[in-house]
TrEMBL record:
Compartments in which it is found: Membrane
Region: Disordered, residue numbers: 1-46, 60-94
Any single Pfam family the record assigns to this protein: MgtE
The protein's name: Solute carrier family 41 member
Domain SLC41A/MgtE integral membrane: 141-275, 355-498
UniProt record similarity statement: Belongs to the SLC41A transporter family.
Biased composition (Basic and acidic residues): 1-11
Source species: Trogon melanurus
Membrane topology: Multi-pass membrane protein
GO terms assigned for molecular function: inorganic cation transmembrane transporter activity; monoatomic cation transmembrane transporter activity
Amino acid sequence: MSSKPEQKETHQANGTVLPIVPVDCLPSPDRGQLVEPSDFLGPDGDGVEVVVLESRANAKGVREEDALLENGSQSNESDDTSTDRGPEPASPLKETSFSIGLQVLFPFLLAGFGTVAAGMVLDIVQHWDVFKYVTEVFILVPALLGLKGNLEMTLASRLSTAANIGQMDTPKELWKMITGNMALIQVQATVVGFLASIAAVVFGWIPDGHFSIDHAVLLCASSVATAFIASLVLGMIMIGVIIGSRKMGINPDNVATPIAASLGDLITLALLSGISWGLYKELESKAYVNPLVCAFFIALLPIWIIIAKRNAATREVLYSGWEPVIIAMAISSVGGLILDRTVSDPNFAGMAVFTPVINGVGGNLVAVQASRISTYLHMSGMPGESSETAPRKCPSPCSTFFSSDVNSRSARVLFLLVVPGHLVFLYTISSMQGGHTTLTLIFIVFYMTAALLQVLILLYIADWMVHWMWGRDLDPDNFSIPYLTALGDLIGTGLLALSFHILWLIGDRDSDVGD
């Protein structure tokens, strides 16, 4: 018995599979009619064996002579009634380098200007009393800004994948995905905000050996309130972006994660600064305000947990999705410790304005790449399934950046956006007279070297990490982006601090690093 893809054309009637006959084979002038099984004969006069199935008929149950199969293959493929679907990837992945770059460019620039605005805000608020006398707030900055990677970017990647594979096509499915995911990120935001405040207290206490209970409660209230409100606002924005992208025919993977960060850094940092400043003012006269704020947001946790548990799409993440966000928060907090120790030194005060920019750009680009690779893998199967698209071994840099597949193409496009993007952002900062640093040639060279090295490392790690998690039966949409953006914060802050130290040591006084 032979089987070919063209043999799928069948007619289903009362559980009986009838072959569709080419018009030239019909014995009567009534073209297009189906002959009865008893009347259908092959070229040699042999009858055709017709398989009757109790369930829905499958084209593979029909066996015909080779000559008939060849004739049947000439029929129009648009009449195929088979429910079998091939593994060919959906259209969003059939993209050229130009189309990828065009779709990524606008949200990338938008996200970059958002990080520039966040840097300008941090440059201003670092001189506020709350940042001067409760310096642990600096440790909260990367951890809370990293929530866009831990929560909002993960939400964007999860919803982008669901939209691309058709899980948000009906209003009922869409509503379920929205309510479940919004409740989930509120749970995660509250818990991660609380843990981030504990990490800030510990990292601030270890070097100095000084602990203040009032400052600890202030950090807790500021962190939890900021995380909750920022995640609520950004989550709603993300849902609107993904729905709009699908209606406009744009791949959500290319635009959702950068837009998640475009306002994410600015909104989060503005909320953190405003809330911490307001609560700091209340410490002396109304000391009970800070504990009440903490208790209020923590008391809302059971409501969000119940809503998230009722949704099958978020129930698993609610139970198993804590490891990446908590570890990512800890990694970002280490970057915050580096920021705290560097910015507190008057010689490196100018670093504050550039930290959200370099961290934000690196995190945005790697989040796009991780989301694209995850969607590509989801279209070929489920996590843990053996697939040629999911190698378990560590890839080589050549296969990550110089192969012909679509993910390598997108990695090259994203890497090429680093230099022009940062030049635009640096010029914007300089024109707005932000920071304490004059943009000299040597400063730009060191800054660009740090930015390129950061993105190069992140894109390579993303290629390995997403495939490794897929092979370990872990959904990369839920696990990879928190790690990658947290590593982006740590690598970016570390490389930037190293660049400022080198510039100071070699005596680049023209850049006014210590002004």
